[in-house]
Amino acid sequence: MKKYTREELKDITIKLIHDFIPELQDAELDEDSTINTDTNIDSLSLIMLVTKAESTFDVRIPRREWSKITTLGELLDKIEKRLPDA
Amino acid sequence: MYTRFTSFRELIESFRSREGVAIKYADEDDDIIKEVTYNKLADLITSETFHVKAACSSVEVIRTEQTLESVIDIFAHVLAGCDVIMADPLVPEEFTDRALMAAEAAKIERESKRDSRGRLVSKQPEGELLFFTSGTTSRSKIVRLTSESFCTSAWSGQSMLACGEGDVILSILPLSHVFGFVCSLLWGLAYGACIALGRGVRHIIDDTLFFKPTILPAVPSLVSAMMKFNTLNPQLRVILIGAAPCTPETAAVLREKGIDVYFGYGLTETSSGIAITQDLDEPEALYPCPGADITLEPDGEVTVATPCMMQGYIGAIPMFDKDRFFTGDIGRFDEKGRLHLLGRKKDVLLMADGTKIFCPEYEEELAEMTGITDLGMIMKDGHAVLIAGKGSDKEALKMAVAEYNKTLQRSQQIYDVIISDHELPRTVTGKLKRYELAEQYK
Q1: Does domain B8-344 have CATH number 3.40.50.12780?
Q2: How is domain A6-81 classified at the CATH fold level?
Q3: Which of B22, B117, B395, B418 could pair with B41 as two cysteines, CB 3.0-4.6 Å apart?
């Protein structure tokens, strides 16, 4: 299974956001960016983003934790925690 | 023409004479579809009813999910005489506390029922279903509804838009909402369709391709997402929109794909549908459902009397007057007697994903942030827009709005700030005339 650095995780996830949510194609995002509020990701888009991230990194984030994801960094934390050798 | 069931017991008993598949479902990560026949479903519910009765519970919180167990649980508890609080499994933990408090209140209310001589009223044969509704404030109220009112709602819906054997209804809307419960579960079960229980939130966009439904109850934002990702299946013949109207443009695009789009208008307090569109080329013209007596007040407010009416709220006074429910919606009748909704009388904006904006909360927060008090939230071109009275500092407001938007989910954010040429229209007591303000910016 592929190993990712934090930087790689971040870059791939930002690309997912850009690819998956066309209205955010030009948005500059970093780990402190508040997803689902100031990045304009609504709840449906958040569902799709998390689902896409799960399949990309082959991880599974429990549903009860989804509502606790506020920033991009928090999403990365939840992915990173579930990667092999994390 | 269609059977009008009067209780869940009668409905479940009718399952025994049917041969078709009642429910199909699959695990989230599984491609194998499992099926339960109507007869088997009746057995499962009856068996569970005995277990619930043995537990002697009078009120239960059920976190409703699109699972066979959840469906059985709901019906079994009601049949066992237990009141059921329908709670969403994804809501934050504090909701659980409120749900428990509501359960306690429901229990007290139920146990304290007495007749005119002060004697305790005997236990009713079926439990009630308790739904949370946002109503006209962000503080939820709990609405008490009977199985009879739900069965009547399903029947009146069927009289307007029929489903039956051969139909597959995809159930992906929350069952803790009345629209989801009636239109994506009860309606189909009552009239012999097969209910396909969605595989969960990860498949909310693509379950259409997996289960190949013929009927899809949905909210506008979900339909838009399915259109965007091209996941509407070719077998789909009907989309039933609820919670908020679908734009005529979206309806037209769907019609080109051969999908008929209907919009159902109803409230939690009326067990869902009281009116539904019928003319496909006029997707905003609503026809009253059978038994629904819809009238307009002099100010245009829609009021309704219906056999599907709630029993009341828990711990709150119902907005009744002579058995009519005041909806808070403004409407008009056209020359054919069809109802057209024009907006909300109350301080609520209804967004495309079915969520609501409670305008006074926005206005008070922004007034506190800026010191500007002549503010009014309205809906303009599908977006929430802030209007400020003449002479207001636009830059200060825009900065405050940007800050405030960070605390809001996208669909509920303020899209624009407009400075009016006048002071905002108000009543003599200073209350904002929101409908009049919205008319000015149409």
Answers
A1: yes
A2: 1.10.1200
A3: B22
- Contacts for B130-133: CB closer than 8 Å, 24+ residues apart: B130/B83, B130/B84, B130/B85, B130/B86, B130/B102, B130/B106, B130/B314, B131/B86, B131/B176, B131/B177, B131/B178, B131/B181, B131/B268, B132/B86, B132/B87, B132/B102, B132/B176, B133/B178, B133/B267, B133/B268, B133/B269
Locate tokens 């979206």: which residue?
B250
Give chain B positions within 8 Å (CB) of A40: 410, 413
* Residue A39 confidence (pLDDT): 47
Query: Does the model's ipTM exceed the 0.85 cut?
Result: no
Q: Domain-by-domain residue ranges, chain A?
A: 6-81
Partner B contacted by A38 (CB < 8 A)? yes
> Among candidates B153, B218, B239, B160, which has minimal Cα distance to B189?
B153
* CA Rg value for chain B: 23
**Which stretches of chain B score pLDDT less than 70?**
56, 90-100, 102-104, 106-107, 110, 119-124, 134-140, 315-322, 346, 428-430
Q: Does A42 sit within 8 Å of B221, measured CB to CB?
A: yes
Provide the whole-model pTM. Answer: 0.80
CA distance B57 to B69: 18
Long-range contacts of B317-320 (CB under 8 A, 24+ apart): B318/B269
Cα–Cα dist B152/B131, whole Å = 17
